[in-house]
Fold each of these.
Amino acid sequence: MSTQFERPESERTTGSTTGRQPGLERPEIRDTGLLRQSLTIVRRNLIHIKRMPEMLLDVTIQPVMFVLLFAFVFGGSIAVQGSPAGYREWLMAGIMGQTVAFASFIVAVGLTADIDKGIVDRMRSLPINPAAVLVGRSISSLLHSSIGIVIMSLTGLAVGWRIREGVLDAALAYFLLLLWGFAMIWLGILVGSAMRSVEAVNGLMFATMFPVTFLADTFAPTENMPSALRTVAEWNPLSSLVQAVRELWGNTGPAPADAALPLHHPVLSTIIWTVGLTAVLAPLALRAFQRRTAT
Amino acid sequence: MTSTPAIEADNLVKHFDDKVAVDGVSFSVPQGSVLGLLGPNGAGKTTTVRMMTTLSRPTSGTARVAGHDVVQDPRAVRRSMGLTGQAATVDELLTGRENIRLIGGLYGLTPGYIKRAGDELLERFSLTEAGDRIVKTYSGGMRRRLDLAVSLVAIPPVLFLDEPTTGLDPRSRVELWDVLRGLVRDGTTLLLTTQYLEEADQLADHIVVIDRGKVIEQGTAFELKNRSGQSAVVVTVSDAADLTRAEALLREVVDEVHLDEGARQLTAPADGLRAMTRIAGIFDDSDIELDDLGLKRPSLDDVFLRLTGHRAEEPTHETEEVAP
């Protein structure tokens, strides 16, 4: 078959290099750095979404259905205080908090699939910064979550949710959501590295994340919960986030006087929780990833 | 010019917890040659390749690719080699061209080069038409070829192939062999693992047989077959009526004769050509008509069986069919 690739003389002198392709000279391999490499991987992940738009269901149809279900089905029977437009407005921060918590889901599923199919190995065999695989996955997941936040904001506007505080407060709320998403990425990397299949990830995450995101002030006020449950719910880090976002958007009043400590300083607590979760989860996640891939 | 080997393993060991997967494997592959790492499932082939390609850190021992130590300088190793893993590790949701672009981009190659290389490689692997189709629609053989094309985008001087033809139909397998031969002709050094003795026989200049993490034999296919000792002389008589007389003649020079009446064949162990010449002389002096007189060397299968006491692998039907 093949033709004739003349090896350039320059190649011969370098000694250890041999092997040519038709009409191609060995190209210069350039180290483009972590960011460029990560973005190359992000672009690949975005092509995935383009080819399989249903990958976005978890941040589009699903939360929108939740907004509609809770707003119109349960909404009438849940009384909330301090929300100018009632339960529907109060609900929005909760659903966004839950959706961002599910970022861990997205990361875990994507990572497990890539490990499983050998894509991660292929990338690790390339002369790139090894972190690019995880950074690329994380940036994609934050983009993914951001799409969800935009869609939910629009849905919220349609059902009567409004931002009633200043631009800075509103922006801080969105920032906290993304910060939370960042912490959840590490949980995703941990689970994605530890589980052997996408099905296992789905099973585990469904069984844990759903209860955890409901056992908070996301969909119903904690005041009416049995007291033991209420304590757990109010110490749930997600509750701090949701309370912070609600307050910053002017969708609720301050937490009741008898609420647990974090809810009285929700913004600060959210920052502490996310930093703390990251500090615990990141080393575990990196170790799990290392163990899974580098053995 | 003294040239350093393209690939070297020196006493590589890998433990997983308390299990020893690779137990002191050493070999050396000269530039531009092909090493076949042959062994059954679980012999430690993939683990060896993972260590050589920097994916897994050796418990002890050293390995060099294109002169670079896999532990000391993994980055330089990654710059000099391509890896085609056991499962075709191409991205199913991307097109063939996008797969090449992704890996080319990660190598930091220029877009202009990637475009040219993409066209050339797709053409070379008969994927030009499929280049803009999503890989999901590809057949197994096409995926393997794309996988190889992707591994070649930066034209690595050393290529590792982990069971490149496992799961392929016979035709695709033979096609892939041709492609690999082309690469070698152009100077690429290959290390390929295989469970198929025939594949090693077809492609490899040098074969390293490993079993349970240890090298149990190495050499060229020819040496391996020879070293495995017993060749046999096979005599096929023209007339079945002569079989008994032929057997008697043979027994004068060898101790053991195996008779196959249906095939009109007599088989006698004989160590090499000299025995065969002698036997030829005997029949020449007699009036027995022969259809054929030949020396049968042991196949790699026989070699493997002798070395390990077990078959290399259940050969799949495909392998059997491919066999000439």
Amino acid sequence: MTVRLMQGNEACVEGALKAGMKFYAGYPITPSTEIAEISALELPKVGGKFIQMEDEIGGMATIIGASVAGLKSMTATSGPGFSLKQENIGYAIIAEIPCVIVNVQRVGPSTGLPTSPAQGDIMQARWGTHGDHSIIALYPNSVKEIYEITVRAFNLAEKYRTPVILLLDEIIGHMREKIDIDDNSKIEIIDRKKPSCPPEKYLAYAVREGEIVPSMASFGEGYRYHITGLVHKETGFPTGNENVAEELVNRLTSKIENNVDDIVTYDEYLLEDADIAIVAFGATSRSAKKAINDLRAEGYKVGMFRPITIWPSPEKQLLELSKNVKRIIVVEMNSGQYFLEVDRIAGKNTLVEKYGKINGDIIKPEEIEAIVKEGHNA
Amino acid sequence: MPSQLVNDYFRQENLPHIWCSGCGNGIVTRAIVKAIDSLGLKKDDVCVVSGIGCSSRASGYLDFNTIHTTHGRALAFATGIKLANPKLNVIVISGDGDASAIGGNHLIHASRRNIDITTIVYNNNIYGMTGGQYSPTTPCGDKATTAPYGNLDNTFDLCDLVKGAGATYIARSTIYSPNMIQKQVENGIKNKGFSLIETITSCPTYYGRKNKKGDAVQMLTYLRDHSINTVAYNKLSDEEREGKIVVGEFHNSPKPEFTQLYDELIKSMAKED
């Protein structure tokens, strides 16, 4: 066992390499830059490739290209770059190209506060690209979890042939914690399914019986096929047929929505007897945990529900929670983005409140304690 | 009956193509396929990447590994494909707007990197797919739906642009001379580095109609009468050069290629272990 002191952004690259990342393309942006720097350092050592592109859009396009040629690929960015990547994230969704996009969030809109933490990209992760679609977005809360969840991001991207968004907090991206990454032999690694049929029988976008997504050949393997961002038939070729369009968009959405039980992960803390639940994720959940411990010492029956999969949201679990508690307080470093989702799910059964902060400062335990007590005494 | 070339290299189930009658895109596409055929490249080893626009639809008609990407980003996608699998012969098909307006940044940086990608720009001086708006290569003073009083912008010389940026093979031809296009594409593919072939093609439907250039045949005749080889052009006076389309090979000067350099880096690191 080797325990190392590691930064969150570094753990992200270590996790990606563990998952089999062989390609990184990106553009420098605070506070995600270490992910590019460490990828540049480590990838050639494992036969992988790194390229610093001319812009954020290029970074996104290039990882899609590399994935099409068969390499597990990742890019990392922050708010302004995440905005620029949205069109090609949509391309990866419709063309079903596995890839991982890390967004180490900072205060926006626009250039905002480049070095200050925020959790303001919750809704952009969900709806940043145009058109109807579903998305997988994951949100770890510690350096160790960044490592594990980065592996999971690659696995989900490969399994569901879709871009996966990894939302990180600047606080954890730049924080150092101890982590034992040698003890990871049991970690499962998933690779995309390749076609087993001869090339002349290959239908690039047909889903075989019992499969979730079409099998994916890499360019250069003898399966000559066509990829497009246009609505396409099972052959991969474009069509304007309205039935095909509806079927395709429905399939792209349902391959995620029908598998939420596999995709959704979450964590519960002291919820068994709780009548107040805090919903928090990422760095904020760590302040919430401290607040809960302090409040418990004073007799408050408070616990926490922490979604690790932010999208698709843990709907079933939040609905169940809403039946068991009198109050749910959504605490997040934005003005109430995930509150909207929690309120939609839980609001009909219980009181859902929000506590947000948008000034670049972290939410401290005493703030959470105050909001719990205020409501409690009122 | 389709020709042997069509039988061998085109996806006939996707034909006929969407291009207007009189459009020059078919001539360029045929010349590209003839170049691939003449070089004897295996279809499995060829990857055609295109952006968005009329010419970018070509990828869907060709029986290679083909990808029709987002507007302007063909070169960025192609960079990922080539770097991930350097054995592929990567060919980018792009229009003037796609390559030099929305995709201009990728064009100069792919040139600078000297990555082994052969880019063929189908330059028809207009945005055709969206109905005739002016592009970075619409001549100054010419009309377009968004330049109803004449275009005030200066135009790009795409060959000069990529020369300055570091491309190692640069040539221009017109659809009046398909054999010249073919030869240039062959040389571009042979060049181990970034190659740009600008082909001047005609759009009678939008550019021609807006600017009273006549029908498809008249536009072809215009290209014949106004194009001049680079050697002959250099002997002309400034006045005589006015209105000429200079064709030929402008630059062929190999330099270390990007993906090769990266592979050498990987090899050197393996040795250190």
